[in-house]
Structure formats: structure tokens, C-alpha cells
Amino acid sequence: MSWTVYLSGEIHTNWRQEIIAGCQALSLPIEFTSAVTNHEASDAAGDGLGKEDSNYWRDHKSAKVNAMRTKTLIQNCDLAIVRFGEKFKQWNAAFDAGSCSAFGKPYITLHAEDIIHPLKEVDAAAMAWATTTEQIIEILQYVITQK
């Protein structure tokens, strides 16, 4: 069986690459998917629908275009990893976790201990919480290979 794992969350560190490389090194049968991680491209996703004078409407259109991708990828994944970084508040990651919960998709949160309290509801619905990419790789290895 091949697994599809959706990688959600912060875009300012290389956590995605660490997980992908670690799983490839173990030859795990995983296809990874993700939201658009290029901030400028994501912000401009709705620009083809016409210029807006207000940043609100530009953001609104781009959010809807991005949501088509995100919703589809989450619905089609076997499980998701939701990363909360330290630099920014990732409201989009919290929304993705809520979507996973609503769609019945298992997810694992990945974040530091110092934000346990603000993420208590998100973590409560998660199947696991990890603090390192190595822990994520170990979980994926066990879930997929039983080792």
C-alpha cells in the first residue's frame, strides 16, 4: 500500500525536507503533498481573478483559490502532519487541523513544548504530538511497516 501524507504548516524552516528525506532513506511508500509553500505565490493565487484595491479582497480571493488545493489534498490524504513553528502564528495550520478533524483524517502535530497551552484543543484531536521530525519519521515508519 502506498500512503499519502499531507504536510501542513509553517513554511520558514526545512522540516518538510527533513521528513521527506528521512522517509525516503527508509524506503517508506509515501507520497507527500503540501499547500503552496512559496509565500508570494500563495498571496497572489487569486490575482488572475482581477485587481483589487483592497488587501482584504485580494486576500479573500487568494484564500479561496488556495483552499481548493488544500481541501482537496486533505480529503485525499491518509494522514497529515501539522507543523506549528515559532516565528509566526500559523492560523492556516490550525484551520487545516480542524479540517482534518472534520473530515475524519488522522493527523500528528509537530511543535515545541512552549506552545502546548495555546494548541491544547488542536493537540487533543490529534493522534500524536511530536517535537522533532525524527519522531514523525519514527511514527510513520511504525504506522506503515509495523516496525
Task: Tell me briefly what this model is.
With 147 residues, this protein is of the alpha/beta class. The protein is 48% helix and 16% strand.
What does it look like?
With 147 residues, the protein is of the alpha/beta class. It has a single domain (3-145), classed as Rossmann fold (3-Layer(aba) Sandwich). Helix content is 48%, strand content 16%. It has helices at residues 15-25, 39-43, 55-76, 91-103, 120-125, 133-145; strands at residues 3-9, 30-34, 79-83, 107-110, 128-130. A five-stranded parallel beta sheet has the order 2-1-3-4-5, sandwiched between helices. Strand 1 (3-9), helix 1 (15-25) and strand 2 (30-34) form a beta-alpha-beta unit. Helix 1 (15-25) packs parallel to helix 6 and helix 3 packs parallel to helix 4. The two termini are 16 Å apart.
